[in-house]
Amino acid sequence: MLVTALLSGLVLGGTYALVAMGLTLQYGIARIMNLAYGEMIISAAFLAYVIYTGYGINPVLGLLITIPAGFAFGYVIYGVMMKPLVARARDKASLEIDSILATFGLLFVIQGVLLVTFGANFTSYNYLNVAVELFGTNVAANRLLALVLALTVGGALYLLLTRTLWGTALRAVAVSPASAPLVGIDVNKAARYAFAIGGGLAAAGGVVISMYQTFTATSGVVFTMKALIVVIMGGVGNVVGALSAGLILGVVETFVATYVDPGLTLAATYGIFLAVLLWRPSGLFGRRAG
Amino acid sequence: MNGKTILAIAGFIATIAALAFVPFVVGPYGVTLMIGMLGYVVLATAWALFSGPTRYVSLATVAFFGVGAYTVAVFSESIPYPLLLLVAAGIGLGVALVVGIATLRLAGVYFVIFTFGLAELIRQLVTWYEVNVTGTLGRYIFLPITPEGIYWQLLALAAITFAIAWWIGRSRIGLALRVIGDDEVVAVHCGINITGVKLALFGLSCTIITLVGAIQAPRWTYVEPSIAFNPTISFLTLIMALLGGAHRLTGPLLGAVPLFLMFEWLSANFPNHYSIFLGLIFIAIVFVLPRGVLAFIEERWTLWRRNEPVSGRTADE
Description:
- The structure holds 2 protein chains of 2 kinds.
- By secondary structure, chain A is mostly helical.
- Chain A is 73% helix and 3% strand.
- The mean pLDDT of chain A is 86.
- Chain B has a single domain, classed as ABC transporter involved in vitamin B12 uptake, BtuC (Orthogonal Bundle).
- Chain B has a two-stranded antiparallel ribbon with strand order 1-2.
- Classes of the chains: A mainly alpha, B mainly alpha.
- The A-B interface holds A 33, 35, 81, 84-85, 93, 96-98, 100-102, 104-113, 115-116, 221-222, 224-225, 228-229, 232, 261, 263-264, 266-267, 270, 273-274, 277-278, 281 and B 55, 57, 59, 102-103, 106, 108-110, 112-114, 116-117, 120-121, 124-125, 127-128, 131-132, 231, 235, 238, 242, 272-283, 286-287, 290.
- Chain A: Keywords: Amino-acid transport, Cell membrane, Membrane, Transmembrane, Transmembrane helix, Transport.
């Protein structure tokens, strides 16, 4: 029981970590608080569903379509919607409010499109739904694959950000958008790519979710919420923080669902969020704000 | 008090009195429409009471609205009616204070995130409680209240809300709020207890929102969490307040009336597509009218007045 709960907690946590990494890039580097993030995740889940059930392409191979699609969507949305807001923002706070409001509208647009296209039903598909024996307990192969995918994408992103010049430039923008141009970094371009990579990660997360969970057109809000909490827990812009916080949240939620009551998982999430806000608002892994 | 203020107060009282007679003129459909419209006018005004001056965007309107509606549904048989409203208001205030104490000490973005999921959290908690403790999901409300009664109660609440908003606008606490909205650091240095002021206003705004839910609850007859905590209500309230301009007393009113009528029309004619339209309208408002219609018109007006003499002079020369 304990091992089973821990394993499914890690699977869930890996998924949360994956989607939260995208959000932390969007908020930390592009300075856009994207409330439509969960809708991007759910759109990718539906896309994976369509290409698996409609065209017979398996979701892992389908990532070759969904991730670029998510990246392109993020790129376009940043160029069309966010750039004018960035241009007119007087300071960080007013950009925050504008981006919150604009993406809140976008949330309803995407959700409306999904509802019209796919209806309000619970959707899921069967892919690799076979049991695998691990540490003396049975785990579904698709869940294991989800964890492996989350860790692979997350690890690749981490290497990209820390080992390449391009990643270093992105991190420099996250630390100080005002000083980055002084060393020859194009902040606008960096923000646009960070937002687009966030879209790609949301798409990857959506595919992973669709492999082992049921989803509906309206379940994006909960994913945005959880990703936001993970981002705050891990410290804004901190990829490793998001990875660890995501795993913690997934494990805690699964334990609450297994040992207390499945209906109280969101309450557990909020409990953690409240504790972080009261104890360390700058994140478990961030520096203490002065 | 100068003459202009007395005139404004007299006009306000006359308007409320005239509106009180509306149910005798329009039919049952008219009353239903007026209830919906008044409900949103109060919601948007109460929302702007806190979020307008402080710029702390609250996405949790329906969390409090739903708390009000559900409280009435749960206690409608055990508590007499006027007391029921007080209990609902008390619960709403309690929730608001807990949320406020946790988040209002911090930067605005934490508050936004917390309120973003609050409605979903409360909905799940209520569902969990109903399923596990009482064993029923969904409740009937049988209260001897006519639609006209609901309308008059909402009208009274609207009058009170406008009076409070007007009073706050000219009191010390209103000034403190505006300073907080402009610059929190300055506000602290002026000796304003910023957390206290924000908490008080948030509590007040949420109590009014809770009361709107409680007063409107008898219209539904049947209530379940997915009806009471419908996220569209938060969304509509936000658009209405922003369209009119959240910084002004009458801004939310000017936003609520046309948008409510348009929403009624859209949901009747495009029941599946209206959330797409609303989202697009909302994005357009954020881009074109970031400070609301009233501020936009005023800016154009001053611009026009400033240009007028200038162009006149060039014509003379």
